[in-house]
Amino acid sequence: MKLSRGWLATIVIVGILIIDQLVKIWVKTHMFLGESIHITDWFQIYFIENNGMAFGMEMGSKLFLTLFRIVAVGLLIYYIWKIRSRNYIKTGYLVCIALITAGAAGNIVDSILYGVVFNNPYPPEIAQAFPPEGGYAPLFHGRVVDMLYFPLFSFYWPDWVPFVGGNFFLFFQPIFNIADAAITVGILVLIIFYSKYLSMVPQESEAGQAENGKLNEHPEK
Description:
Helix content: 40-55%
Order of helices and strands: HEEHHEEEEHH
Strand order of the largest sheet: 1-2-3-6
Distance between the termini: 36 Å
Radius of gyration: 22 Å
Number of helices: 5
Shape: globular
Number of strands: 6
């Protein structure tokens, strides 16, 4: 039995959400804030939290960010539902949109629930789920859990380099999570392989509607 593209998108979204939340909950309940587990010289599990968007960026108030994510995910889900059965849409394009949707939804869970579900003890104490004294923030004001850290290489800029000479440089500095990775992969693959669909979908849709109108005006005898 062939899996429909609607179900494929659903599996991608639900699968990413489950993996993302399992990893975040494990980190939250087994590591204290700021703790680092060195896997290799270039990969660490480094527990931090942030109030902003992907890769720890900040933008506006916490409530605004949460509501913005909810609206964005709702629109993306509606978009997936609209294009799921259109034959001219490649399956890879649909998967990219599903990855972006899953990533955004994953961080929404943190923002909505984590402030209520977890407390916020001082390190080296570890957070507790459903503490008797209540959570650390009201609904919609939770912080996003990040843990994936890839300090791939570092060096000092030569003194002769303008503006940055003598300064330390580390690549890659941002700490992120699986939801952020899903968003990034979805966007990059979308831009590299499926960018034409971003402009073609509305045009094709209008063309399809026009063609259907012609068929209705001149039905087959």
